[in-house]
Amino acid sequence: MTFDLLDAVRQYRLIAILRGFDSDRIVPLAEALYEGGIRLIEVTMNTPDAERQLRALAERAEGLWHVGAGTVLDAEAAKRALACGATYFVTPNVDEEVMAFAAEAGVDILPGALTPTEIVRAHRLGAKAVKLFPVSRLGPGYVKDLQGPLPHIPLVAVGGVDLDNAAAYLEAGAVGLGLGSRLLDRQALRDGDYARITARAREFARAAGIGSGTGSR
């Protein structure tokens, strides 16, 4: 069955953005996030060894999570990510070449945009949803403002989303949230304290209103 990113975002709401993490710890990190309620994982293509990490997460997924490739800047990177098992693409911008490749490959893409012009362009090029980035520069009020003229374009808020504003972005109309440094405690990972990582994920899951934020293997 073809993976539908928009359906998944509406159901799970949170995307964990993994950038620059140690490849040897990427699977335990994903497992800890899964236990905390995270079901969507993005590995950025500017991470050293990103392809190895995508393969490892795709092989281990077993229905637990969906892994996508982020910071996909050109079609060649998209091709490599797809070969490694990525089920969706995320970009920081609207790139016609990448979007055309995604459409041809039958892979959903979440392109990054900030202005109404960029958002509409991304949607017209085939995006089912658009990554509003960097959203922290404008805040939840901006998401709400966009609902007036563009209620038909689902938005995923990314950039500076934390526990204090996560619920506000969703209440303003975002269908999901991309979480990076505010979710991922690098010191906890260095210490091998996966329980702390799981606890943090659960806090975000509760803030996003997705139940108890617990998972099972």
**How many individual helices?**
10
- CA(first)-CA(last) distance: 21 Å
Strand content: 15-25%
CATH architecture label name: Alpha-Beta Barrel
Radius of gyration (Å): 16 Å
Assign the CATH topology: TIM Barrel
Low-confidence stretches: 212-217
Helix proportion: 40-55%
Order of helices and strands: HEHEHEHEHEEHEHEHEHH
- The overall number of domains is 1
CATH H-level superfamily title: Aldolase class I
Q: What coarse outline follows from CA principal-axis ratios?
A: globular
Q: Sheet bearing the most strands, described?
A: 7 strands, parallel
Going across the major beta sheet, what is the strand order?
A: 3-2-1-9-8-7-6
Mean pLDDT: 96
The structural class is: alpha/beta
Strand segment count: 9
CATH class: Alpha Beta
Overview of this structure, please?
The chain has a single domain, classed as Aldolase class I (TIM Barrel), CATH 3.20.20.70. The two termini are 21 Å apart. Strands 3-2-1-9-8-7-6 form a seven-stranded parallel sheet. The protein has 217 residues and is α/β, with parallel strands linked by helices. It is built from ten helices and nine strands.
Key phrases:
TIM Barrel, 10 helices, two-stranded parallel ribbon, 217 residues, seven-stranded parallel β-sheet
Describe how the helices and strands are arranged.
Layout lengths: L4 H8 L1 E5 L7 H10 L4 E5 L5 H12 L4 E5 L4 H9 L4 E3 L5 H10 L2 E3 L1 E2 L2 H9 L5 E3 L7 H8 L7 E4 L7 H7 L3 E4 L6 H5 L3 H14 L10
Parallel strand pairs: 1-2, 1-9, 2-3, 4-5, 6-7, 7-8, 8-9
